[in-house]
Amino acid sequence: MIWTILGIFAGGMALNLTPCVYPLIPITVSYFGGQASKTDQGHGKLVAHGLCYLLGLAVTNSVLGVAAALTGGLMGSILQNPFVLIAIAVVLISFAASLFGLWELRLPSAVTQAAVKSYSGYFGTLFMGLTLGVVAAPCIGPFILGLLTWVASMGSPWLGFVVFFTLSLGLGLPLFFLAVFSGQLQKFPRSGGWMLWVRKVMGWVLVGMAVHFLRPILPESGAVLLMSAVVLAAGVHLGWLDKNTASFRLFSWLKTGAGVACFVLATFLVMSWAMRGPGVSWKTYSEETLREAQNQNKPVIIDFYATWCTPCRELEEVTFHDAEVVKQAEKDFIMVKVDVTQGGNPFHERLLQEYGIKGVPTIVFLDPSGKEKQELRLVDYLPPDIFIGRMADLKKSSS
Predict the structure, then answer these.
(1) Is residue 237 a part of any domain in this protein?
(2) Which residues contact 154 (CB under 8 A, 6 or more apart)?
(3) Which of 56, 122, 286, 384 has the fewest CB atoms within 10 Å, measured from its CB?
(4) What is the domain range of residue 391?
């Protein structure tokens, strides 16, 4: 999640280089410079205006993120339906097509004109931040909508706030610093094809998100190969097929670097999957399985899992394929998986109620007598080395 947040912050900064936002940079800087010239407080006043601008931008996006996350319960249930997942993927790809220039997202002119209207004082600065998303909607709208869909599927209001607050910082921080140091700025890089190239980068991000939503209905090999193909296609397109140019020489190196990086990433995805060792051997939950554990005097680990749950898949693909975890599980534990991907199963509903499961993933640790060790319960992804520590704690308490 840390890397995801950093990626979202970088994505927010990259949105400043799209054709819709970039022209706002000199306008914003000149506005802030005008505000500072009206007072004798210099940079202090300018910093205050910059913070108001960031606050307005953060409020707009963070409210959107929290609102989307509050639908998490609904999203969690409807994401069990393959047709819904396909529909979401189609929507994301259609947004990507907008960023590729195949169609244009446009807002009513009255809304755009109201958003760009100039107001004075701190309220004017706050209003500019609040309405930046409206003015830049043709470029950042598809990316924001795609991110909203992902946040809604996670179902955490706190995560929704963090994701969109981080995006707001990435989008607003460059404008903030440019405004504060507007007096030292001589000129901006000329606009041109490089901004269209950045917009296409965002389009490929949305295509990757569409593949992410399709993963639960694809076999694991198919999901890995499809994602690798998307990354490779993005690299070929952005690195060599795209004909956009720029007046600065670094742009050609940037394009080539993006293509090579995508090729390396696609290779890594395929090789890491192909070279992965065997995973944990799971048993289906039953009273017979628990009695078997008691007879063998072995503790039990129960994994409540769903294919539409991202941390669940991360646990399965990373932690439960770690060689040491697999070795310990086979030797000293009875491993049980309860797959609640499809809702409405009375038996699963009873288990969820019996064990007090509020969501997935949830890992329950039972001693050989069948009593749960509540202090070991896990409700999120845990890397292999820390998970092995929990297995050791369960063994120690069981003995």
Answers:
(1) no
(2) 69, 72, 160, 310
(3) 286
(4) 283-398
